């Protein structure tokens, strides 16, 4: 529950401190005094809108601090524990606002605003004075019924799964649209790959193919040249080997007379060995360049194919193997897309089954809750000044499943006996709609797990005996919950177990708003003001005392 609320420089509030307790707390004050500012400040602390217009004129910074006492096993405690923010039985939230922006802290540590909103939804439920108008929206009616049925999480899961299903269907449709264009491209790529695979040459093989062709084309010339070179080296009489061999023999004879000539003889021996090696390689080369018409024709055909493909693809001959790899990867990617389409089709089938099953479960829960809620609200309406009224929740099956389920949800009302209920927007006046809204809020609050409920002037448009009943309803609701109610009706205010008054006070060149607790005679005087207007009379004071005494406040 909310135990303390500290407000600094918010709107027209300079400083305010509220020490709150369990039960029903009422907040009253004259019109325009700023009764709702405390609620606005609390909403700011819980992640609400943070505009600079909330900073009090003349101030540079606004701050709200809210202290909550939380149960160890509550949803809020579990959230804090999961976020590693739980310290003790108190949760302190601080929100600051200046011209540069706002900051939020939970138990002294900074948190994102979205996290603050999540925590706030577990601590406080706010019913605003204009909330009854939202009941005309289908989305609000659906959320109300799902919350009452305890199916809010199930409805959110269905929406998530249905959205995933829609995305999968859109992706599968996009893949189908790509198929025709992809097939034309696939045929072209497969033809080009067939040509490259038939070539079956690597980059180095292609680069050496030209050299091989040139050698084959000049085989006769090369054979004659190699033969001449071989004869020049190894001719028995005129060849280089014969002459060097003779020179070596002469030197070896002379070394007997001059040992200094031995190195020259050795060098000539080495030259003879080198000449023998070169002669051998020349003979091998002669055999390699022998004219082979069939081989030459094959080489010419391969070279022509290489040049044709290089021209076709406008790349260098040596880049053809790389192109083959790229095209193979492209085909592989298309194969992956086909696999993705199959996986999507399987996932769509799974999601369709899951969505249908979830929708069936949700529909059954909604049907039970709709009957129960209709009965409960109908029973409350006579005491709120609508005798003979009947409230029903109508479920209209939809032709196909949607993200929100298999039915349209509509709140209907009959204000007279014998009339069929019709949609709220068509039959309910402003006053009637506010009473239906109040009945719903009280009924829903009774089943919710939120520890603190705030009603911000939801009693607008009612009075007299109806207001008295509203006060009793709120007090009953506060038996095991903390309820804060901003009201302008004395019949509601007298039921408060605790009472705060909001009033304006002249301050320097302007005014400021004060929030002060009321007890004893001060409370009697405030109730009398609410009954009789600005001027208190003995009659209104006596009536106020009687009303407070009658309800035991």
What is the class of the domain at 1-129 and 457-462 and 477-513 in the CATH system?
Answer: Alpha Beta
Low-confidence stretches: none
Biggest sheet: strand arrangement: 2-1-4-5-6-7
Number of strands: 15
What sort of overall outline do the alpha carbons produce when their principal axes are compared?
Answer: elongated
**How many distinct helices?**
18
Radius of gyration: 48 Å
Q: Please state the average pLDDT score.
A: 82
* CATH architectural category of the domain at 1-129 and 457-462 and 477-513: 3-Layer(aba) Sandwich
Q: DSSP strand (E) fraction?
A: 15-25%
Largest sheet: 6 strands, antiparallel
Helicity, as a percent range: 55-70%
Structural class: alpha/beta
CATH topology of the domain at 1-129 and 457-462 and 477-513: Rossmann fold
**CATH superfamily annotation of the domain at 1-129 and 457-462 and 477-513:** P-loop containing nucleotide triphosphate hydrolases
Span of the ends, CA to CA: 22 Å
Describe this structure in words.
Among the domains are: 172 residues, Rossmann fold (3-Layer(aba) Sandwich), CATH 3.40.50; 157 residues, no CATH class. It is elongated, with a radius of gyration of 48 Å. The longest helix is centred in the middle third of the chain and has 61 residues. It has a six-stranded antiparallel β-sheet, with helices on one face. A six-stranded mixed β-sheet has the order 8-12-13-3-14-15. With 553 residues, the protein is of the alpha/beta class. A hairpin with a 2-residue loop joins strand 14 and strand 15. It contains 18 helices and 15 strands. Helix 5 crosses helix 12 and helix 17 crosses helix 18.
């Amino acid at each position: 529950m909310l135990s303390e609320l500290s407000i600094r420089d918010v709107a027209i509030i300079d400083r305010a401190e509220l020490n709150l307790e369990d039960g029903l707390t009422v907040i009253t004050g004259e019109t325009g005094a700023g009764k709702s500012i405390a609620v606005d400040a609390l909403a700011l602390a819980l992640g609400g809108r943070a505009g600079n217009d909330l900073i009090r004129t003349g101030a540079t910074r606004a701050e709200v601090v809210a202290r909550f006492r939380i149960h160890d096993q509550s949803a809020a405690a579990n959230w804090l524990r999961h976020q590693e923010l739980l310290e003790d039985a108190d949760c302190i939230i601080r929100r600051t606002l200046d011209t540069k922006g706002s900051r939020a802290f939970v138990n002294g540590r900074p948190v994102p605003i979205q996290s603050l909103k999540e925590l706030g939804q577990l601590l406080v439920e706010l019913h605003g004075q204009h909330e009854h108008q939202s009941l005309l929206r289908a989305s609000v009616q659906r959320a109300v019924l799902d919350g009452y049925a305890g199916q809010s999480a199930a409805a959110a899961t269905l929406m998530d799964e249905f959205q995933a299903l829609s995305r999968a269907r859109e992706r599968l449709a996009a893949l189908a649209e790509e198929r025709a264009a992809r097939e034309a491209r696939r045929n072209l790529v497969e033809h080009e790959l067939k040509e490259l695979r038939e070539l079956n040459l690597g980059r180095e093989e292609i680069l050496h193919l030209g050299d091989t062709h040139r050698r084959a084309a000049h085989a006769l010339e090369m054979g004659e040249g190699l033969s001449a070179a071989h004869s020049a080296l190894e001719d028995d009489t005129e060849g280089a080997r014969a002459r060097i061999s003779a020179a070596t023999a002469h030197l070896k004879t002379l070394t007997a007379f001059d040992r200094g000539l031995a190195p020259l003889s050795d060098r000539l021996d080495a030259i003879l060995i080198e000449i023998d090696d070169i002669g051998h390689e020349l003979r091998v080369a002669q055999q390699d360049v022998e004219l082979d018409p069939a081989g030459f024709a094959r080489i010419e055909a391969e070279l022509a194919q290489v040049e044709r493909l290089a021209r076709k693809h406008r790349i260098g001959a040596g880049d053809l193997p790389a192109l083959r790899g790229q095209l193979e990867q492209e085909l592989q990617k298309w194969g992956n897309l086909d696999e993705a389409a199959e996986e999507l089709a399987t996932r769509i089938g799974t999601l369709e089954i899951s969505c249908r099953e979830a929708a069936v479960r949700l529909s059954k829960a909604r049907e039970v809750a709709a009957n129960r809620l209709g009965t409960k609200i109908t029973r409350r309406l006579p005491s709120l000044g609508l005798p003979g009224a009947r409230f029903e929740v109508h479920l209209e099956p939809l032709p196909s499943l949607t993200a929100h389920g298999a039915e349209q949800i509509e709140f209907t009302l009959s204000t007279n006996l014998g009339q069929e209920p019709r949609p709220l927007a068509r039959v309910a006046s402003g006053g009637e709609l506010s009473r239906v809204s109040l009945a719903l809020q009280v009924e829903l609050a009774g089943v919710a797990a939120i520890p603190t409920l705030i009603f911000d002037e939801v009693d607008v448009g009612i009075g007299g005996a109806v207001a008295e009943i509203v006060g009793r309803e709120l007090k009953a609701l506060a038996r095991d919950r903390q309820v804060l109610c901003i009201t302008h009706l004395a019949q509601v205010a007298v039921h408060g177990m605790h009472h705060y008054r909001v009033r304006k006070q002249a301050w320097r060149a302007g005014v400021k708003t004060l929030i002060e607790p009321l007890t004893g005679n001060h409370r009697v005087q405030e109730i009398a003001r609410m009954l009789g207007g600005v001027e208190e009379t003995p009659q209104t004071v006596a009536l106020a005392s009687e009303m407070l005494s009658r309800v035991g406040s």
